[in-house]
């Protein structure tokens, strides 16, 4: 009388289902382990632009920094330096408190030229995020570039102005993805091995 392989098939199906669930869980872990600093953004606004506008304004004169979409109670530290960097060039820096996940600076000004904005969440990992923009005030007394590092020229590192400008963020997706693929392959091997046992295979 032939022996039924139904119990073996049930065991193999349960094993494969369990491994699939574990693999799916690991594949989803990058979001859970995202390093502080991956959320939220900062934009440069011309003075007079409403905070709610969320506009990209890559060329400004008198301006302010608008931070939003951060976690509640976080704070960020920001710096502005000439781009490309020049020893003794104009710089600004400060902090923005984000009691509701959003905040802004007071009105700011810099000599005409190109600048790199870098911001980092207080206590976060990595080098922070950045974007590049230009200060150009045609009516400024004296005219022309007013500080070291000013004048035209493409950015050296980072995306063009107004492009969002994310950089140097932590990314755990490749590691978790490789682990998930390994588990799925292992699950397939176990499934085939269990199915072959009723036929006498090792």
Produce a short descriptive summary:
By secondary structure, the protein is α+β, with helices and mostly antiparallel strands.
Spatial arrangement of strands, main beta sheet = 2-8-7-4-5
Tell me, what's the shape? globular
Structural class estimated from helices and strands: alpha+beta
Contiguous low-pLDDT stretches (5 residues minimum) are 21-34, 143-192
Number of strands: 8
Q: Architecture of the largest domain, according to CATH?
A: Sandwich
Task: List descriptors.
about 200 residues; alpha+beta; Immunoglobulin-like; 5-stranded mixed beta sheet; 3 helices; about 25% strand
Can you walk me through this structure?
The chain has 202 residues and is α+β, with helices and mostly antiparallel strands. It has two domains: 6-33 and 173-199; 41-135, Sandwich (Immunoglobulin-like). The protein has helices spanning 6-27, 29-32, 173-196; strands at residues 41-46, 59-60, 63-68, 74-82, 91-98, 103-104, 113-121, 129-135. The strands form two sheets. Strands 2-8-7-4-5 form a five-stranded mixed β-sheet, with no helix packed on it. Strands 1-3-6 form a three-stranded antiparallel β-sheet, with no helix packed on it. Helix 1 (6-27) packs antiparallel against helix 3 (173-196). The longest helix is centred in the C-terminal third of the chain and has 24 residues, at 173-196. The model is unreliable at 21-34 and 143-192 (pLDDT under 50).
């Amino acid at each position: 009388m032939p022996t039924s392989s139904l119990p073996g098939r049930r065991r193999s199906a349960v094993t494969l289902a369990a491994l699939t669930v574990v693999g799916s869980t690991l594949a989803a872990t990058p979001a859970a382990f995202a390093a502080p600093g991956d959320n939220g953004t900062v934009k440069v606004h011309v003075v007079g632009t409403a905070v709610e506008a969320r506009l990209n304004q890559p060329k400004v004169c008198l301006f302010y920094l608008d931070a939003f979409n951060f976690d509640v109670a976080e704070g960020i530290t920001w710096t502005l330096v000439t781009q490309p960097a020049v020893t003794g060039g104009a710089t600004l820096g400060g902090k923005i408190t984000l009691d509701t996940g959003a905040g802004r600076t007071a009105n700011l000004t810099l000599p005409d030229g190109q600048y790199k904005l870098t911001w980092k969440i207080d206590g976060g990992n990595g080098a922070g995020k950045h974007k590049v923009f230009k200060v150009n005030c045609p009516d400024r007394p004296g005219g022309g570039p007013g500080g070291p590092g000013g004048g035209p020229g493409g950015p050296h590192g980072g995306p063009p102005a107004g492009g969002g400008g994310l950089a140097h963020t932590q990314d755990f997706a490749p590691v978790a993805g490789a682990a998930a693929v390994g588990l799925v392959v292992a699950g397939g091997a176990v499934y085939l091995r269990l199915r072959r046992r009723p036929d006498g295979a090792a």
